[in-house]
């Protein structure tokens, strides 16, 4: 993997770049749609491509449980298994350390309880790395502990040091040079811990760096502070990835602070519950006001859904519990995010990102509050 920094906006830390992988180039800043189990609910790979997606994200923990990395490797790797020809990034399972109940965290790894069978599942840095290498992802994430919020400083410091130690073990477990290992900076909401973690990880000269633990309930203002504290300590010539973020306003604030890569389940999860993104904020298509609304979801959108269907039709599909309601909504939401990223890249290229951000939020946030 190679990262090329093309330019920086002169008015802020926003960056324009290219991440080159064996499965294609990624124009940054970029949003990565999430295909947790090697599938994006509820879209086919062809539909994902049509939205403008350049890279997708899958999850190590869940693919380890089903169908197992051995089967995926035997099938020729995750790209071939799921018929996706573009780059893939795999999360390590570190977020599940935060999100799943009934786990036991030790100095060496984490014991999980299978949600259905109750069987014990163990992941440590070496096994998480091996699983991701068997899956064949282009970018693999180090196994870390995603710290909950709120968290007292003593625990945060011990956990952050553990994450640094685990990263070194992940690096030692790497075999071959065709996959890129990213470290994940933790430290909760403590500025000195974030800086310390970033400095220690820089010493390992990794292909890329992520900021973790910022989508765990801390809110936008703390998110902005954490990114502002952390990003300046990360190498300028390596990609910077903010994990699990998020809403359009989160992304815009983070791009301003120098972040290149984002992922989140929000576009597809919201789509399944009839929440759609528009330039004037989010709308909920199950609302009775849309029963006779014959406008597209967003009149300015050129996605397949907006070019062919009305809000009234989508309202009908959700009322009738038709599966295609989620499909058409997900096409629109993912396209909305990736079109926003395209506009962000264009704005950075023209030295006008701050102007774009102000105009976007000026239209989006007031409308969002009305819906």
Structure, described:
α8 (191-202) links the parallel β11 (180-185) and β12 (208-211). The chain is of the alpha/beta class and 371 residues long. The chain has an 8-stranded parallel β-sheet. The chain has 2 domains: 2-264, TIM Barrel (Alpha-Beta Barrel); 272-370, no CATH class. The protein is built from 15 helices and 16 strands.
The structural class is alpha/beta
CATH architecture call of the largest domain? Alpha-Beta Barrel
* Largest sheet entry: 8 strands, parallel
> What is the strand content?
15-25%
Number of domains: 2
Number of strands: 16
CATH C-level of the largest domain: Alpha Beta
Describe the global form. Answer: globular
CATH topology annotation of the largest domain: TIM Barrel
Tell me the span between the first and last alpha carbons: 43 Å
Assign a percent range to the helix content.
40-55%
Q: Low-confidence segments, ≥5 residues, pLDDT <50?
A: none
Give the overall average pLDDT: 96
CATH superfamily of the largest domain: Queuine tRNA-ribosyltransferase-like
Sheet with most strands: strand arrangement = 4-14-13-12-11-10-6-5
Structural Rg: 20 Å
Number of helices: 15
Characteristic terms for this protein:
single chain; 371 residues; alpha/beta; 3-stranded antiparallel beta sheet; 15 helices
């Amino acid at each position: 993997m190679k990262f090329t920094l093309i330019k920086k906006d002169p008015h802020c830390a926003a960056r324009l770049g290219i991440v080159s992988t064996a499965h294609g180039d990624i124009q940054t800043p970029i949003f990565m749609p999430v295909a947790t189990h090697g599938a994006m609910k509820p879209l086919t790979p062809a539909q994902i491509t049509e939205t403008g997606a350049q890279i997708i994200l899958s999850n190590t923990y869940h693919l380890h449980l089903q169908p197992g990395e051995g089967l995926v490797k035997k099938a020729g790797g995750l790209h071939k298994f799921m018929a996706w020809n573009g780059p893939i990034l795999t999360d390590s399972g570190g977020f599940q350390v935060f999100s799943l109940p009934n786990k036991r965290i030790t100095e060496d790894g984490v014991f999980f309880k299978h949600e259905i069978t109750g069987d014990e599942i163990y992941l440590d840095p070496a096994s998480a790395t091996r699983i991701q290498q068997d899956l064949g992802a282009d970018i693999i994430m180090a196994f870390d502990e995603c710290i909950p919020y709120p968290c007292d400083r003593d625990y945060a410091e011990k956990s952050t040091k553990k994450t640094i130690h685990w990263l070194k073990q992940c690096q030692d477990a790497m075999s071959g040079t065709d996959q890129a290992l990213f470290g994940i900076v933790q430290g909760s909401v403590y500025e000195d811990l974030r800086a310390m973690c970033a400095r220690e990880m820089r010493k390992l000269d990794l292909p890329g760096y992520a900021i973790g633990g910022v989508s765990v309930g801390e809110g936008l203002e703390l998110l902005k502070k954490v990114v502002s504290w952390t990003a300046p300590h990360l190498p300028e010539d390596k990609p910077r990835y903010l994990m699990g973020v998020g809403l359009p306003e989160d992304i815009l604030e983070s791009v301003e602070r120098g972040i290149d890569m984002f992922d989140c389940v929000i576009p597809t999860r919201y789509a399944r519950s009839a929440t759609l993104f528009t330039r004037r904020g989010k709308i909920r298509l199950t609302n009775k006001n849309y029963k006779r609304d014959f406008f597209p979801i967003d009149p300015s959108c050129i996605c397949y859904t907006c070019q062919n269907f009305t809000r009234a039709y989508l309202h009908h599909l959700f009322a009738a519990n038709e599966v295609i309601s989620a499909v058409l909504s997900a096409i629109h939401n993912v396209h909305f995010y990736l079109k926003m990223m395209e506009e962000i890249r264009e704005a950075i290229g023209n030295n006008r990102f701050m102007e774009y951000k102000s105009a976007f939020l000026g239209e989006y946030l007031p409308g969002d509050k009305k819906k």
